[in-house]
Write a structure and sequence with these properties.
- The complex is a heterodimer of chains A (247) and B (604).
- Chain A has 247 residues and is of the alpha/beta class.
- Chain A is 36% helix and 24% strand.
- Chain B is built from 26 helices and 4 strands.
- In chain B, strand 1 and strand 2 form a beta hairpin.
- Chain B has 2 domains: 279 residues, no CATH class; 207 residues, no CATH class.
- Classes of the chains: A alpha/beta (247), B mainly alpha (604).
- Chains A and B meet through helix 2, helix 3 and helix 5 of A and helix 19, helix 20 and helix 21 of B.
């Protein structure tokens, strides 16, 4: 069964149709890229999957379960992790405390009132930080991290929930070009190891073509193409969208 | 019908006065993003200066107009000086610190005014034209009120013209939207801000002078004016001038008509309407969601547990606190008891404001509810002290739960204003429901049982308050506290890892209310009485000052703040008549020199 099944998702803002009737599936363990020019509706689409925005119509099924109007925190509990276009972390905490807070929530211990939070799940937190390459930064205040490292930290926070599906909205935006491939290879490896599916939006085509198993292309709110790197590269409609047409 | 028409007109006159004060506040806020507590002080200065000018002039209308304009100009100059010496330095500080600094100015102006004009209310000898009336539908209606009614729309139109038809006005509107962009276009921000501040202050000053014929210049008018202006500005939408006029009309008419229908509840009515408007339209009638004032210092200091030296200092303080009653006199003991209670009061506010990220201007509400909830059962049902002290936090916590359920989804200044509104409602109930609460006379003779002398009460207060504060601290470092802090740092991220941010905030709100309620209950027994002043804005501000003074980012902050503030306050009270001035100056100096609070200073 598909991990995620999206059926006819539609959203308008005022008179502007941002997303029109988008349908696709995400399979276990796959890296699925959602691409398209600015304003194509990628982020709107993402925010409807994560529960941040209610769609006007259509539905989202997570392994057959309808999650369309659930709030983000319930969607998270069902095994969907996500990272944001502009990184969202807990700036008043150290790097490790960020992950510990996520682990406490995952283990449903956030309402405990006595034992100090930073004594919980230390090994698990450090293992996650090791995975994303932040092991040496664990004790640093997270507000001091470089932007690329913030992206890694956000990934570790999302992974703490042991997601079956990870939604990443522009995971490499703002990251130095040299670091991008490393970050996405890391995600791809995690996906293959853990049979976790990853749906991501991305503007860097090199990254998309090298990492994604499958690519969805959006333009003006609709899906216009779907396929692997080779077929997408050769698709005339996609070329028209990205390079413009003579007409 | 006729009576209500007259009431309507009276309400419209009242609305114009409200609008003049509020317009200045909202213009200043729109551009500088400073919530200027001292706006009421400028209003008061306008009234006093106006009195000094007008009482020396012939009592003709043209001289009156001249005097009002002169008072406005003088206040504008004072406002400009204030902006250049103080506010300019704190534009990038967190908004609560700005508020604290302007509150310091309020205290200083109060004492300066007292010193210059004396304690008596100053009434203006009214010329004949000021006493004349117009007959409307057979009823006599004061001519001056008619002038006021016209003045509101006239001033609104003038401001609108300035803002839409002049280059300066265009720049001001642009700066309201994005001040960094305006600056990038080569506009001198400093002059723009100073001129806006001067204009807003001038409006406040004119409003103060215009208030003279119907009231007197007195030393309480600053806080009354700022509360009214806040209400109007918040209902209208922060930064919106037309919104301010609409809101002023709403409040003015509501007050005038409400006095017929619900003579005893006008105070409550205004704040209920404000709460209702904000719950339905969180940005006010005409307000838009505020774009963040870019370039603001939004870094959140990371919180670390107490260092060994701080722990040692805490232990030493505790040891002194335990030994002290055996060597000091009764007055010093009462000061120490007050300090202990202040610690819990401040620590509870800190839970909301710091890790909870919910600013409150009305924390005295919970303190007051606790005090009355402890005192009333003692007086009415002769309940014993331990039970009363149990009722206090439970009652305050339950009310906090109910109020919190409505307001915790709101943020920033709006939430702060709603808490202020709620505190004013509680105050009004305590003040106006005199059959039960004793009204202004309060509840007297709430004494502890005979076994509990001043010393025993001190130890009770110390153990409950220090214990309570430590317990709160423990919880903030536990998973719940981290989850709460996570909700504050990034609501989106917190929800995305499965946290119920609203519920976390609600528990913090309830817990803070409950702890403040216990502090209030203790205060009732150690003072032997409860008065409505426990719930006054001044008392809420005390808590705010304690927290901000100590530093909002550490748990030690509010404790240090409570001790220093209570000590400073009592010492100043003894040492000088000018205690308000000195305290105000100290607050301003602290904001300028150590914006992270005293605890922040110790950390550096």
């Amino acid at each position: 069964m598909s991990i995620l099944e999206v059926q006819g998702l539609t959203k308008s803002f005022g008179g502007v149709a941002a997303v029109r009737g988008v349908s696709f599936t995400v399979e276990p363990g796959e890296m699925l890229a959602l691409i398209g020019p600015n304003g194509a509706g990628k982020s709107t689409c993402f925010n409807m999957l994560g529960g941040q925005l209610p769609p006007d119509s259509g539905q989202v099924l997570l392994q057959g379960q309808n999650i369309t109007f659930l709030p983000p925190r319930h969607i998270c509990r069902l095994g969907v992790g996500r990272t944001f276009q502009i990184t969202q972390i807990f700036a008043s905490m150290s790097v490790r405390e960020n992950v510990q807070t996520a682990l406490l929530s995952h283990h449903r211990q956030s309402w405990k009132l006595w034992r100090a939070a930073d004594t919980h799940h230390i090994t698990e937190a450090e293992a996650l930080l090791y995975k994303v390459g932040l092991a040496t930064q664990a004790a640093r205040p997270s507000a001091e991290l470089a932007y690329g490292d913030l992206k890694r930290l956000e990934l570790a926070i999302a992974l703490a929930g042991q997601p079956r599906l990870l939604l990443m909205d522009e995971p490499t935006a703002g990251v130095a070009p040299a670091e991008r491939a490393g970050l996405m290879d890391l995600v791809a490896n995690l996906a293959r190891e853990g049979q976790m599916a990853v749906l991501f939006t991305e503007h860097d085509m090199e990254i998309v073509f090298s990492c994604a198993d499958r690519i969805l292309v959006m333009d003006h709110g609709s899906l216009i193409a779907e396929g692997n790197a080779t077929s997408i590269r050769a698709n005339p409609q996609v070329q028209a969208v990205y390079l413009g047409t003579a007409a | 019908m006729i009576a209500s028409l007259i009431q309507l007109l009276t309400g419209m006159a009242e609305a114009s006065s409200l609008f003049l004060v509020a317009a200045g506040l909202t213009v200043i806020f729109g551009v500088t993003r400073v919530v200027n507590f001292a706006h009421g002080s400028l209003f008061m200065l306008g009234a006093y200066i106006g009195w000094s000018i007008l009482s020396r002039m012939p009592r003709d209308p043209e001289y009156f107009a001249l005097g009002v304009i002169l008072a406005g100009l003088a206040t504008a100059a004072i406002g400009a000086a204030l902006e250049m010496t103080l506010l300019r330095r704190i534009y990038r500080a967190p908004e609560l610190l700005q508020l604290l600094a302007t509150f310091g100015v309020v205290l200083m102006v109060q004492d300066a005014t007292l010193h210059l004009w004396g304690p008596e209310d100053l009434t203006l000898p009214r010329g004949r034209w000021l006493r004349s009336a117009v007959v409307i539908l057979g009823e006599r209606f004061p001519l001056y009120d008619l002038i006021l009614i016209a003045l509101g729309p006239i001033v609104l139109a003038i401001i609108w013209m300035i803002f839409t038809r002049t280059r300066w006005g265009t720049l001001v509107r642009a700066a309201t939207q994005d001040r960094d962009m305006v600056s990038a276009l080569g506009v001198d921000q400093r002059r723009l801000f100073t001129s806006v501040f001067a204009m807003g202050s001038g409006l406040a000053g004119m409003a103060g002078a215009l208030a003279l014929p119907e009231a007197s210049a007195n030393l309480q008018m600053d806080l009354t004016a700022i509360t009214d202006a806040f209400v109007v500005v918040v209902i209208g939408g922060l930064g919106s001038i037309s919104g301010a006029y609409l809101a002023a009309l709403l409040i003015g008419i509501l007050q005038a008509v409400g006095i017929i229908w619900l003579p005893k509840s006008t105070l409550v009515l205004v704040f209920v309407v404000m709460a209702a408007v904000l719950i339905v339209r969180p940005n006010g009638l005409r307000g838009r969601k505020l774009t963040a004032a870019r370039g603001e210092a939004d870094t959140i200091a990371s919180i670390k547990p107490a260092s060994p030296s701080l722990k040692l200092a805490a232990l030493a303080t505790l040891a002194i606190a335990i030994a002290a009653p055996f060597v000091i006199g009764p007055f010093a003991l009462s000061v120490l008891t007050e300090m202990a209670i202040a610690i819990l009061f401040a620590a509870s506010l800190h839970v909301m404001m710091g890790p909870g990220g919910m600013a409150s201007f009305g924390h005295a509400a919970w303190f007051g509810i606790g005090a009355y909830a402890a005192a009333l059962p003692v007086k009415l049902l002769t309940v014993s002290m331990p039970i009363a002290l149990l009722i206090a936090p439970i009652a305050a916590g339950m009310v906090a739960l109910a109020v919190g359920a409505l307001v915790v989804r709101l943020n920033g200044v709006t939430l702060a204003m709603l808490t202020l509104a709620f505190a004013q409602i509680v105050w009004a109930v305590a003040f106006q429901w005199s059959d039960v609460t004793g009204g202004d006379n309060g509840i007297l003779g709430v004494w502890p049982p005979s076994w509990a002398g001043p010393q025993a009460m001190y130890f009770l207060a110390l153990s409950l308050c220090a214990g309570g504060a430590l317990l709160l601290r423990k919880m903030l470092y536990a998973p719940w506290g981290f989850a709460l802090r996570a909700s504050r740092d990034s609501t989106q991220r917190a929800e995305a890892i499965g946290l119920d941010t609203q519920r976390l905030r609600l528990t913090a709100f309830t817990l803070a209310g409950s702890a403040a309620g216990l502090a209030g209950g203790l205060a009732a027994f150690t003072k032997g009485s409860v008065f409505p002043t426990t719930i006054s804005i001044g008392h809420s501000v005390d808590a705010l000052v304690m927290v901000l003074l100590g530093g909002v980012q550490t748990m030690a902050g509010p404790i240090i703040g409570a001790i220093v503030y209570t000590g400073l306050f009592d010492a100043l009270l003894l040492a000088t008549d000018l205690w308000r001035f000195v305290l105000g100056a100290a607050i301003v100096a602290i904001v300028l020199i150590v914006p992270q609070g005293i605890a922040g200073l110790a950390k550096r």
